[in-house]
Batch of 2 targets.
Target 1
Amino acid sequence: MPLVPPLPASLPTAVAPALPAVIGFADLAGIAVFALSGALVAARMRQTLVTMCFFAVITGVGGGSVRDLLIGAPVFWVHDRWVALVCLGMAVVCWITPHRWWRGAALEWADAVGLGAYAVLGTTKALAYGIPPVPAFIMGVITGCVGGVIRDCVAGRPSIIMRPELYVTAAALAAALCSAGQALHLPKGWVWAVSALAGFALRAAAIRWKLA
Amino acid sequence: MPLVPPLPASLPTAVAPALPAVIGFADLAGIAVFALSGALVAARMRQTLVTMCFFAVITGVGGGSVRDLLIGAPVFWVHDRWVALVCLGMAVVCWITPHRWWRGAALEWADAVGLGAYAVLGTTKALAYGIPPVPAFIMGVITGCVGGVIRDCVAGRPSIIMRPELYVTAAALAAALCSAGQALHLPKGWVWAVSALAGFALRAAAIRWKLA
Amino acid sequence: MPLVPPLPASLPTAVAPALPAVIGFADLAGIAVFALSGALVAARMRQTLVTMCFFAVITGVGGGSVRDLLIGAPVFWVHDRWVALVCLGMAVVCWITPHRWWRGAALEWADAVGLGAYAVLGTTKALAYGIPPVPAFIMGVITGCVGGVIRDCVAGRPSIIMRPELYVTAAALAAALCSAGQALHLPKGWVWAVSALAGFALRAAAIRWKLA
């Protein structure tokens, strides 16, 4: 099909080389945790494996997809062979494992790690695309929260951002520290670590002490 | 307004020439069926003609729009003079015809045809844009299901993918066969026919025998 | 990060110079009114300031973002330093002022002004990007209504377009007059003024006399 325009092959990976490899791994781990939370919502509503896969994908990649569309980046998972497979794999993991494995707080803690890491990653990617600090901060919040918002809208549940405990606030703290730190030209490694940790800590405190 | 950048005129039709004309017709027919299902949801809630038009448009073009945004294609209906008119026309058809015409299973069967055809079309378009097989399969499911998901979210109804009968599974079967068949370089005409027919057959069985 | 592709600097402002400055101001005012309506929904549900900010942003920029993605324009607020700040500022205004300020009809009237102006702006921007008249009309309706639709979906409320009084019809009137007037090459200033006024007048009548 020679009429199909060739894809700009350098774009999808344009940002990645500038970020350390650990962020690439954190990225995939964060996607997996979000995908699992989506599959679990479908499992609790006694849906089929295919519907669990659908929820795993929209929850796992929803926030990053909205971010990439808004900043004009190629959507990160579409030209990638692994991200979609990881989401489908998490749905299968959820399907074949006993439900009680996921009943406790383990998933909520993993989600807290993903939230902080994802907000930092989203802010950093937006800044790397030349977005000014305030919109970049919003991109960080979108990356962290919108997958869960889409999951809850489609499932017809009250949205995660309306629940009493702090959720969007933790993503906002991580994204704000990350955006401000990079605007002040502080060392990037420290900015990423401190802001992701702060977001995780606030979310962890909200889970532990029901902060509202 | 010379400051407005000229549109890349070759892009919107870049894929179309490579697909047989019958797919172009199936495409418009599928859009019409989905648009009608959107208009009917609004009609049953005793909404005005304008709100029926709004639902016809978001349901008819929703899935394909999300697919095109994700794969980086120009959104198929935006530069087209007919697709939007077909959606608005279906809302008018729904408005001027007696409701009992649409009460039976006729619409559901038409929707089943559209679902299979649309899942195949979405997968094929994604593959034509160089998307790997697994994300292309997901694009097929998105093309078939997301219009209905948006319709149900906006209407505040339980989402079609949460209902007991198989729906997303039929789209997934068609998209998976289509993606696998093209990855294995089987003859395209056969792959398209068999996968669309398989998706329709599964959905038809789900309607007929309430498969869950 | 030299690997990051340089942004096409001329695109985000490509349309703006062709539109009179008053539209740029109306734009920001319309965003502020929509953002305030989003923050108020969160405030009435006793959410935190951060959640109010989230709702202010998605409501203020939601419709225009969907329009820009569909027509292939750079999303208007992402490369702008002010729009996101205006949305966040409206959430703070909503947070620090007494709730009774916003209890009356003042906000609904302001929203009516924004609806008409926004529908006209959205249609005009789509036409400036070479979109045919019917899809451009739909872009006007999307620009006026979709921010409120997203706000209501995320908040789990009945969508504004399902309420008894005319809402989407007012946006459709403004967008249809604007698209038709420009297709007929009538003087642009008059087309913009008359169509925005007509949309506002219909919405005002719907508020005043509960038109359905």
Target 2
Amino acid sequence: MKFELTILGSNSALPTSKRFPTAQVLNVLERFFLIDCGEGTQIQLKRFKIPMSRINHIFISHMHGDHIFGLIGLLSTFSLQGRKNELHIYGHSKLEKLIRFQLELLESKVEYTLIFHNIFGKEIQTLFEDETLTVQSFPLKHGVMPCAGFLFKEKDRPRTLKADMLAFYNVPIKNRNGIKMGEDFVLEDGEVIANAKLTMDPPKSRSYAFCTDTAYFPRIVPIIKGVDLLYHEATFLKSEEKRAKKTYHSTAEQAAKIALEAKVGQLLIGHFSARFKDLKGHLNEASEIFPKTMLAEDGKKFSVELDRD
Amino acid sequence: MKFELTILGSNSALPTSKRFPTAQVLNVLERFFLIDCGEGTQIQLKRFKIPMSRINHIFISHMHGDHIFGLIGLLSTFSLQGRKNELHIYGHSKLEKLIRFQLELLESKVEYTLIFHNIFGKEIQTLFEDETLTVQSFPLKHGVMPCAGFLFKEKDRPRTLKADMLAFYNVPIKNRNGIKMGEDFVLEDGEVIANAKLTMDPPKSRSYAFCTDTAYFPRIVPIIKGVDLLYHEATFLKSEEKRAKKTYHSTAEQAAKIALEAKVGQLLIGHFSARFKDLKGHLNEASEIFPKTMLAEDGKKFSVELDRD
């Protein structure tokens, strides 16, 4: 029952030899959602043993090179691997132009179906929805560049059946789905067994929000309220707050403020400027405001466990 | 007096976590010539501490993704680093289209001058020439895809002065350049001192040939004859010779045959299929025919030393 994020790249525009540009993959029940695709993403997918054939959805936040330059290589590799599954790509309308132009110029045969979905970037938009999960985009603040955050949210689960009680009342299998949905059970003699006797609350649905690149932008707080895990960029330290503002990036402190205001479970900071070899400064600065802060580092995994409280 | 090749990527189309796609850099007297630019090249340049600001010439063999997908990211990084130097890129005419389209679509400001040079690929062509070095391209055989090999050749050096003999005959500084070029020296009393007394043969000029991607193609032998170091692709083993032929690649044995026929100094094989985790098979197969064979591995350096024999 996984809900696990793997960091493929944690750096900002200039990659270092240890930190690749932005890319992450979220494993929700063994479906892998790729988020951003900086140069080298396919290499990191191999390094960290992510099953590439299970990636059917790619979400691209914005059209800066450090978030997209790995996409054409990944699409080509899918082709060489004989991929047949449809691939859905969610991003700015320019992204489709960029990819289609390259495929055509290079005469690359892509045998699978590529489906581009346009993110308008001006409001909350549902990009993906199935029985268990929804993915929405929402606008961030990155200058004139339209830039989207992404919110991954499990749907509410049906109630959990109490196996011993079902056995005790001899509940037939045909009734179980209804009981999961909250129905009571009526015995042959007419006695009503309340649903609360037969079931317990289901595990809480889990959620993840991805916010990069962005200046300090409190308008996102209601959207990401209470998520279990928040990734928020922290390109700079507080000492460079002016530079952060000018370049539409955030400081570690600002990331922590957003986490605090949104009452999230845990904060993960990343998109570090290449100048920082040591990231303790970022961790300390954010942790002072929001103690449950962690550093995004290439290859690290962050799980949200199922919770029955 | 370096003439040193660094392998940045040694794999064929599908990169592995240990072998990046094709890219190399040749250091000739502290000028760095980049050859091919697969995805992740900029990361490898950082990892192996190549001074990026000294790269002013990039040679691209052909328009397959595993040889070019790192170029747009590298050009963007040059921009972010504030590069001002002209950058010369040698490749197929489509390469300029590919790069210009991306820069325009992404509204990337490139403050330095980008100069594209078209490789026609049908004959030997001198791409670069200065006082010490020439770089030529020549056609390889890679199906319908025009594909160029590159030949880097130091020019002949002037003769080496014998310092002790110059002091003995009290040769003025103004005469020395002429003597380096082979002139005799005439003493005040009219006696002629033969050049051979005053100088010795210069070190041999050094050379490197880069041959990938290509089927077995003996027509290149006269072009690369006697080079000190030959890089030749060896995507497959002899057991897959049919597949090599079909995909216009070479086996390790074929690479060695070319090296033997061309009487090169040393052979370096690379562009390995991702299926091979262990490359001993390639090394053994080639070494049987051409003993001075080495494996290209990411990060390895191969020097051609100055030779006075």
